[in-house]
Design goal:
With about 500 residues, the protein is an alpha/beta fold. The chain contains 11 helices and 28 strands. The protein is about 20% helix and about 30% strand.
């Protein structure tokens, strides 16, 4: 380069390459793209082999399987601490090309994530022989999202370092059952197991001394077999979550240290359900999430005197005789307990309540509770009467949390709830007295700023004579100006001794 006076300027100093190697490696890691990191070899001789020293490798969906394999084989470190591969259309061949090479090299996290793109049907994804997962002896966490790909667990080997296993969209095949693979002999350090959207779990039995949490969502069995019988025996298991396990027939949990049990839509799914047969022996159980069918004669919880938190099946406020069955599940489970610390109760309104029965009168008692999380799906209807009915049976509640679970437009609200709608013609809760002499704290989430909400909150100030704190949060769709005006209106209802907290209006 030549200056105007004819002198030749010195080339600019390469200060970046002069940085310590560990800083340069950190710069390459921030690219989160192994191919882009490899391209930096052309910058200078100093950068030529830096990409081969990366402890973490990230591959975008466009990376070819042979390119992933080559990058792993070229890595000069004794072990990788993370390997993340995004794929659009995972196949047995594309994954098998590099998985067995990666297994002995990984001492950290493996993630295979199905990226957004062309989707396949379950039949298309499950065709052909299953992909056999190699045994990652030193991996600490494995997360596989395979888009309904057929998968076989390794028949031998110990996942000695594995603490976290997440499987999503897999069709489990092969002679080795998932329960055998994740039990203590082969996963001695496993703390959390999550399986979502999987099929092939006709029988699932886990025996683990280390598991702290199990979460099963949207699982299917083999055709009509369903998940079949589940037996879980653990001395130290702290949490189990079973969510939408279709066609489950029987659940048995023997876990002396279990603290959290979550069963959601396993026996009940869609418009059908199978009679739940369950035997839960968990004397240390603290949190029970049973959003599912419940029959007192066939669902046994044993001695769970330490229970602190209970979630039940949603209660339908308006319905027909055919829909009252699910309400019976909810009420039957609550009758099982005389007192608990905290209850989550969900009230659901159908969009059209014309000629529907008002079902709240079926609720005749609640357990003695200190905290109530009341989740409401009003579909535009007035929900003050149903909330009043619940609160008059929970007069000892100290903490109350409202969450509005759905948002509909103003036009939809008018269509669902005309001025002469039956929802606002119930016994006049707007004038009836209610003494909530213990209620000290109220939190309301996802307000929409409707007249129905304002009417209930105004009454709440009258009922809660010792209320000290109220916190208000609006749904994200509510315009800031409307939220500010609504919050100021609520403040006008309040008393001076009540501390009202709301969003910051800049």
């Amino acid at each position: 380069m030549e200056h105007s006076d004819g002198e030749i300027a010195a080339p600019p100093e390469d200060r970046l390459s002069a940085l310590p190697v560990d800083i340069l490696i950190d710069i390459l890691l921030k690219l989160r793209d192994a191919a882009a990191a490899a391209q930096t070899s052309g910058l200078s001789r100093h950068w030529r082999r830096l990409w081969a020293q990366l402890p973490e490798l990230f591959f975008h969906p466009a990376t070819r399987p042979n390119g992933i394999r080559a990058a792993i084989e070229s890595n000069e470190l004794p072990a990788l601490r993370r390997l993340e591969v995004k794929v659009i259309h995972p196949t047995r061949e594309s994954l098998a090309a590099w998985l067995h090479i990666a297994a002995p090299r990984l001492s950290g996290d493996l993630r295979i994530i199905k990226a957004a793109g062309q989707s396949e049907t379950e039949d298309e994804a499950a065709q052909g022989a299953p992909l056999e997962l190699p045994c990652f002896e030193n991996a600490t966490a494995i997360r596989l999202d395979l888009g309904n790909l057929a998968l076989a667990m390794p028949p031998a080997g110990v996942f000695a370092g594995l603490t976290d296993l997440f499987l999503s969209g897999v069709d489990l095949r092969g002679p080795c059952m998932l329960g055998d693979a994740v039990s203590s002999p082969r996963c001695p350090a496993l703390r959390k197991l999550a399986v979502h959207g999987a099929s092939g779990l006709a029988n699932f039995a886990i025996r683990s001394d280390s598991l702290l949490e199990i979460e099963l969502k949207h699982l299917k069995g083999d055709g009509a077999l369903g998940l079949g019988n589940i037996t879980i025996r653990s001395e130290s298991l702290l949490q189990i979550g079973l969510i939408k396990v279709h066609d489950m027939q029987q659940l048995t949990v023997l876990a002396p240290a279990l603290q959290v049990l979550n069963v959601t839509y396993c026996f009940a799914h869609g418009s059908t359900y199978s009679e739940p047969v369950a035997n839960i022996c968990a004397p240390q159980l603290m949190c029970l999430y049973w959003t599912d069918a419940y029959e007192p004669s066939s669902t046994q919880f044993g001695n769970i005197r330490n229970l602190k938190w209970l979630d039940t099946y949603p209660f339908l406020v308006y319905g027909s005789d055919s829909r009252k069955l699910s309400n019976d599940w909810c009420l039957g489970l609550m009758r099982r307990f005389e007192s608990i610390l905290y209850l989550t109760f969900i009230l659901v309104y159908p969009l059209d309540i014309t000629n529907k029965q008002y079902l709240m009168e079926d609720i005749t008692r609640f357990p003695d509770i200190e905290g109530l999380a009341l989740e409401i799906k009003p579909k535009g209807h007035s929900f003050g009467a149903s909330v009043f009915h619940v609160l008059r049976m929970c007069t000892g509640v100290r903490r109350l949390r409202f969450t509005l679970m759905d948002v509909i437009s103003h036009t939809e609200a008018q269509s669902a709830c005309p001025s002469d709608c039956v929802c606002d013609q119930l016994p006049n809760w707007k004038t009836q007295e209610l003494a909530l002499h213990c209620l000290q704290e109220v939190t309301i989430h996802k307000l929409n700023g409707t007249e129905h909400e304002a009417a209930l909150i105004k009454r709440l100030f009258d009922w809660a004579t010792v209320l000290g704190n109220m916190t208000i949060a609006f749904h994200d769709s509510v315009p800031k100006r409307k939220a500010k005006e609504f919050f100021q209106m609520l403040q006008s209802f309040s008393r001076p001794e009540i501390c009202m907290k709301g969003p910051h209006f800049a």
